[in-house]
Design goal:
Blueprint (H helix, E strand, L loop, with lengths): L5 H16 L10 H12 L4 H26 L32 H15 L3 E2 L8 H4 L34 H13 L4 E10 L11 E11 L4 H16 L5 E8 L2 E10 L16 E10 L1 H6 L8 E8 H9 L12 H4 L4
Parallel strand pairs: 1-2
Antiparallel strand pairs: 2-3, 3-7, 4-5, 5-6, 6-7
The chain binds zinc ion (ZN).
């Protein structure tokens, strides 16, 4: 396109040169040569000359827009690459890429350790789901519809209404239903449920939107809170390799009754007080309780015949305490310097 006005014509030539050289073709639209034309337009006195100048500047701008659009829609032909080749196939002399092997994530290492201990205690493991529904997240767990207790489990929901579970208890109803026929043959339900869970959190060193939980479910005839405490104490003493004191205090969960907060004597300072236990000598570790009769009933298990307990705790927290990790966000950061400390 030819421009009548000398100023516009000179700017057009400069801008086209710039366009040819520029790696980012859009930069031509932000070039000072173009801005200068608009600045000039602003100070021209109103009249025919200004109108014509304005028309040409706009025409130049449209031409440049068009050039940028055409360039970005043109397909760029690149050489194919073989992503499975251990060398750069396009290099003139292909050399093997430097290799380094990965290692198990610290959370998964810890989980293996936990599963092994519970395995020896007779528990089988079932992984929870990373997408679930309202029934398994709430209704089957005795959360009435619109009950404020649901607010403690603020998580992510897909457009289709599926829920990213805020706890591994979403598996309880399934585990209880699956174990029902065994119960009637005298086989208790002993299941642990590790899984990835999600919360809508304000992130900081202690709060992450994604973390791992370990749920436990135990149902049989004559099970009471003493069994719950003994089971968790046996696990923790094995896990920390030392005798520990434990204590419970009343709490509220819709799916257990009674519900407890479970604390252990600090295994890092033997109750003398340290950073991990905030100098209290005790660590509040998890929530637990006797499975609510409504939850058993919902799975078709008669709560007058069978009773059971359940607990849920964070695997991230256990791992952080064990290795003195100060910030939970390291786990999902993909930071190799952090991860390689555990390889
Ligand atoms: Zn301590």
């Amino acid at each position: 396109m030819r421009y009548q006005n000398d100023e516009v014509s000179a700017a057009a030539a400069a801008l086209k040169k710039l366009f040819d050289r520029a790696e980012d073709k859009r930069s031509v639209l932000r070039a000072p040569e173009l801005a200068a034309l608009y600045d000039r337009l602003k100070v021209l006195p109103a009249g025919k000359a200004r109108a014509e100048f304005g028309k040409e500047v706009n025409a130049l701008k449209s031409e440049l827009d068009q050039m940028v659009r055409e360039h970005s829609s043109a397909s760029v032909v690149r050489k194919p690459i073989d992503v499975t080749a251990p060398f750069d196939v396009n290099a003139p002399e292909p050399k093997l890429l430097p290799l380094s092997s990965g290692s198990k994530h610290p959370l998964m290492k810890e989980l293996d350790n936990i599963l092994e201990i519970f395995g020896r205690m007779g528990f089988t493991a079932i992984e929870s789901r990373q997408l679930d529904d309202d029934y398994h997240m709430f209704s089957s767990l005795n959360f009435p519809k619109d009950h404020p207790a649901r607010d403690d489990y603020d998580t992510f929901v897909t457009n289709e209404g599926l829920i990213a579970p805020a706890h591994t208890s979403t598996m309880q109803n399934r585990v209880l239903k699956a174990g029902k026929s065994g119960l009637e043959k005298g086989e208790g339900i002993r299941v642990i449920i590790p899984g990835r869970v999600f919360r809508n959190e304000d992130l900081d060193a202690r709060h992450e939107h994604t973390f791992y939980q370990l749920e436990g479910v135990y149902v049989d005839k004559g099970i009471h809170a003493g069994h719950l405490i003994a089971t968790l104490q046996a696990f923790l003493e094995e896990y920390y390799g030392q005798a520990l004191e434990v204590k419970t205090q009343p709490f509220y969960f819709p799916f257990t009754e009674p519900s407890f907060e479970f604390a252990l004597s600090c295994p890092f300072c033997q109750k003398k007080g340290c950073q991990v236990c905030s100098y209290s000598g005790w660590i509040e570790l998890l929530g637990c309780g006797m499975i609510h009769p409504n939850v058993l009933r919902e799975a078709g298990i008669d709560p007058d015949v069978y009773t059971g307990f359940a607990w849920g705790g964070g695997i991230d927290r256990l791992t952080m305490m064990k290795y003195g990790i100060e910030d939970v966000r390291y786990f999902h950061s993909g930071n190799l310097t952090f991860l390689r400390q555990f390889s």
